Structures are given as C-alpha cells and as structure tokens.
C-alpha cells in the first residue's frame, strides 16, 4: 500500500487571491482586500459599498475558468509534489464547478503538475473519505487553506492527517491555524518534510 496525498490547489499549489484582486480592479473597478481573511466583506466598489454574497460568487465564477491563466505557481510546490509522488499517490481536490475540471488539469500541467484532479462543492470530508476508500492507502495526508475543510475532514475521515497551508503571505497573516488541523505550515519546503514524516511513520492521525 502506498501513502496518499490529497491537496487543494488555490493558495496551496497556485496563488489565486492576489490575481483575483488585480482582475477585479481592472475589469470591474472593485477594490479587493482580505481583511481578517474573510471573503464576505472583501470586495467594495468605489462608493464604499460591499458586494452582496450573490455578487461575490458571480465574480468568482467570472474568474474561473476565464482568468485562471493569471495564476502563478506557489514556490517549491512543483518540486515537493514531484518528490512526494515517488512514494505516494497524489490527488488534487479543488472546490470548483465540474465544468472547470479540464481547465484546472490543463492549468496545472502548464506548471509541471500532472496528477489526478477532482472537483468538489461543499465540505471536503466526504470526497476525502471516498478517495481513502478507493485507494486504500497506508496513510493519508490532506492539505488545504480553509479551516472549514479541515473540520469537515476531521468529522468524516479522522484518521487522515490534516495540514493547514495558506501560501499567500498577505492572506496568511490574517488567518489563524485551523482548529481541526494537525499542523500549520505555509511553505512547501517545510511542508514536504512534515508530509514525508507522516508517510514514513505510517500511522493514522490521532486528533
């Protein structure tokens, strides 16, 4: 049995918010500031009004997939995945609509990251549990930037090791470690060592 790494994409493998913010300003004259790490009040017009939730999701849908080419690779992510893939299966679990899957596969391939990609909507616990059942791994590590997904995985697949990573420095300072994660590491050099250590130990998460 091989280990399994299940990783998010945006703000883990690829930078998103910095490029999303630039696009909002250029295309829609909207100011984007992640104050406190919350999308709910991050987008304002020139008159100071905050976008309603439905407008916020509309803008995100406008970015994906049309503007995905703006995204840039997180430092050391490609190299870390390449080394980890020598011993483990890797799945990219991304919360995008299903019609964006091919775009995400192609986007990652342009950055030298070629692994299985699964799209998801909602909490990531159920799809993580399904992937664990499918692969039957010796040990599984889950990496994501959003605390809600660590909580979901902790509830549905508690044996999975959960690494909280926020690779965007301007965003990371506003987001505390996820309460339901096992560790918080925001760079791939250290994260690779942590993941490899979990693989080597071959033990399930304990909390």
Question: Can you walk me through this structure?
Answer:
There is one protein chain. The protein contains eight helices and ten strands. The chain has 207 residues and is of the alpha/beta class. Helix 3 (77-84) packs parallel to helix 8 (188-201) and helix 5 packs across helix 6. The mean pLDDT is 92.
Keyphrases for this structure?
alpha/beta, 10 strands, single chain, 207 residues, 6-stranded parallel beta sheet, 16% strand
Rg over C-alpha atoms, rounded to the nearest angstrom: 17 Å
Portion in helices: 25-40%
Cα(first) to Cα(last) distance is: 23 Å
Order of helices and strands: EEHEEHEHEHEHEHEHEH
Number of helices: 8
User: Order of strands across the widest beta sheet?
Assistant: 7-6-1-8-9-10
Q: State which percent range the strand residues make up.
A: 15-25%
Q: TL;DR?
A:
With 207 residues, the protein is α/β, with parallel strands linked by helices. The chain contains eight helices and ten strands. β9, α7 and β10 form a beta-alpha-beta unit.
Write the layout of secondary structure elements.
Layout: E1 4-7, E2 14-15, H1 17-28, E3 31-32, E4 43-44, H2 53-63, E5 72-73, H3 77-84, E6 89-94, H4 101-110, E7 116-119, H5 125-135, E8 140-144, H6 147-156, E9 161-164, H7 169-172, E10 183-184, H8 188-201
Parallel strand pairs: 1-6, 1-8, 6-7, 8-9, 9-10
Antiparallel strand pairs: 2-5, 3-4
Helix pairs in contact: 3-8, 5-6
């Amino acid at each position: 049995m091989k280990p399994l790494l299940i990783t998010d994409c945006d703000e883990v493998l690829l930078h998103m918010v910095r490029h999303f913010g630039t696009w909002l300003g250029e295309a829609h004259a909207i100011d984007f500031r992640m104050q406190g790490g919350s999308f709910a009040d991050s987008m304002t017009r020139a008159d100071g009004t905050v976008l309603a939730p439905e407008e916020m999701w509309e803008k995100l849908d406008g970015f994906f997939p049309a503007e995905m080419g703006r995204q840039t690779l997180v430092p050391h992510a490609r190299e870390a995945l390449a080394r980890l893939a020598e011993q483990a299966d890797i799945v990219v679990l991304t919360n995008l609509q299903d019609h964006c899957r091919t775009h995400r596969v192609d986007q990652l391939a342009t950055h030298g990251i070629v692994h299985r990609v699964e799209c998801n909507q909602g909490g990531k616990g159920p799809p993580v549990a399904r992937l664990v059942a499918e692969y039957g791994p010796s040990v599984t590590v889950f990496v994501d930037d959003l605390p809600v997904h660590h909580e979901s995985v902790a509830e549905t697949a508690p044996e999975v090791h959960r690494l909280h990573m926020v690779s965007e420095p301007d965003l990371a300072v506003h987001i505390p470690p996820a309460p339901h994660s096992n560790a918080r590491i925001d760079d791939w050099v250290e994260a690779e060592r942590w993941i490899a250590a979990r693989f080597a130990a071959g033990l399930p998460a304990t909390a």
